[in-house]
TrEMBL record:
PANTHER family: PROTEIN PREY, MITOCHONDRIAL, ZGC:162634. Transmembrane segments: none annotated. This is Protein preY, mitochondrial. Belongs to the PREY family. Pfam families: Trm112p. It comes from Arabis alpina.
Length: 77
């Protein structure tokens, strides 16, 4: 299983294989995650939380998630 996971993750967290990204879901909302090139993390657009990727391993523990700032609030400042 570990070997298979390493094959699916490439470039140590810089990109995630499409197959793996289709399987992974948010641990809180159970909705699909998308890979964000800018932050190199997995994002749940449903609840606005970003999960880090450390050494090519997605950290999907709820306490590791970071709440994303709304773009509308950031543009007002």
């Amino acid at each position: 299983m570990v070997r298979f996971s390493r094959v699916l993750l490439k470039d140590a967290g810089l990109a995630i294989d499409k197959t793996l990204s289709e399987i992974l879901v948010c641990p809180l909302s159970k909705q699909p995650l998308r890979f964000c090139e800018k932050t190199k993390s997995l994002v749940s657009d449903t609840i606005g939380v970003s999960f880090p990727i450390n050494d090519g391993i997605p950290c999907l523990v709820p306490k590791d998630g970071k709440i994303l700032e709304e773009e509308s609030n950031a543009s007002k400042d």
